[in-house]
Amino acid sequence: MRNNLILLAEQEAKLNYRGDSGEGLGNLQPLFEPFEGTDLSFDALNADWSGAFVYACVKKAGYPLPARYPDPRVGLTFASTLAWMRYARLPKIRRWHTDLTEIEEGDIVILSPTEQGIGQMGIVLSVGAFEMELAMGNYHNHSAIVSHSLTEGVLGFIRL
Residue 108: which of 117, 97, 94, 118 has the closest Cα? Predict the structure, then answer.
């Protein structure tokens, strides 16, 4: 599944998902569909869809995660970066890692929040000596493949 996740994440990032910037140009409906029937509104997803992009890739790769993990300590849908962090830190899940020298392809990296307080995340496509390549959603309101430092601005990572 891990190799499938890497391939799917790269393909999905190249689809150029983009949020609606008020001009009606957004195309996030495929990322919203897994969350229909939850309390997540399309407007909320449009404002912060980094986690929804990762969730779509994870689901397509075959990982069996529900749209909202059924533990009240998570409390949000997987459209939220915070939900991913809370899930990974649950004592029975234990998938949160902070030793950044251990990052591998297929890991889900959580980046430090931006000035707007939005935490970004992406799926690691490749790892070099100092940088990693990430498939990301909501990178300047688009999906993209982005180079990022292996250490600067990284809170931790999730290994499924």
Answer: 97
The residue type found at 68 is R
- By C-alpha distance, which of 4, 107, 100, 120 is closest to 53? 120
C-beta pairs of 25-33 under 8 Å, 24+ apart in sequence: 28/52, 30/56, 31/55, 31/56, 31/79, 31/137
Q: Which domain covers residue 8, as residue numbers? A: 2-158
Beta pairing partners, 131: 149
Q: Which pTM value belongs to this model?
A: 0.94
Distance from C-alpha of 30 to C-alpha of 42, rounded to nearest angstrom:
11
User: Any bridge partners for residue 68, and if so which?
Assistant: 77
> Could you identify the residue written with the tokens 């849908």?
77
> Residue 47 corresponds to which tokens in the numbers above?
């404002």
CA 47, CA 101: separation in Å to the nearest integer?
32
Q: What's the CATH code of the domain at 12?
A: 3.90.1720.10
Q: In which band, very low, low, confident or very high, does the pLDDT at 60 lie, cut at 50, 70 and 90?
A: very high
